[in-house]
Amino acid sequence: MNDVQYRIGFVLSGGGARGFAHLGFLEALNEAGIYPDVIAGTSAGALAGVFYADGYTPREILKITNTGSRFDLLRPTLPREALLQISGITKMLKTHLKAKTFRELKIPLYVTATDINNAKVVYFSEGDLVETVIASSSIPVLFPPVKLGEFYYVDGGVLDNLPVRAIENICHVKIGSFVNQVGYVEKITGLISLAERTFMVGMSKELYEKAKKFDLFVAPDDLRNYRIIDTLKAPEMFEVGYKATREKLKGFNLEKVLEEKMSAFNR
After folding, report:
1. What pTM was computed for the model?
2. DSSP state, 266?
């Protein structure tokens, strides 16, 4: 605990298009006067986190990322390395991010990616933003891996979909948003659907143990009704995240939690 630098940390999980719910989560917290001093994100959480850390409001991020067309973000490709291209998201990041490196962000950010060569999770907090966020978002089979330095990286959710480990020892209060709920599916048809479902099931591991590490944890059950490539329902998912967070905040007293945490830290 000697390395605690921040009061409040937000953790944003992966979950594909369900990440639009993170924006509702952020909106509700900001309305309650709660803002992060540090953010950690995986995949969709890294995408939401990087725009927020760059100074955009949740609704501004929704406007940027809700293009109204799935093919503005994801394009089919010849299945040599992957089934889809992520070039639309790359273009979006390059067009709208004011910061080019982690150091230029207004809020410190940790982006989670999986080093596929060495089979380990990496928490990036410096270097190029766009390539790192794309690496964090590259769901295996659906999207191609990204080379950063010597090694290839894929979606951080492969090994750590809820990256509380990145900040758990450097902030007093941890607030998490989880958008990768896995419910019953009767039929799975097609390669994309199979890859999507397999990845979602894998990302749900360790959820219950990690959830215990948070002082406030939001995981809306209604997100089970949305696919992780369902980009056309962004406003609906925003509202799901917003309403679930507002409900959770009813029993949450930030000042009391902060006082208890900081008192324990100073003993």
Report:
1. 0.87
2. T
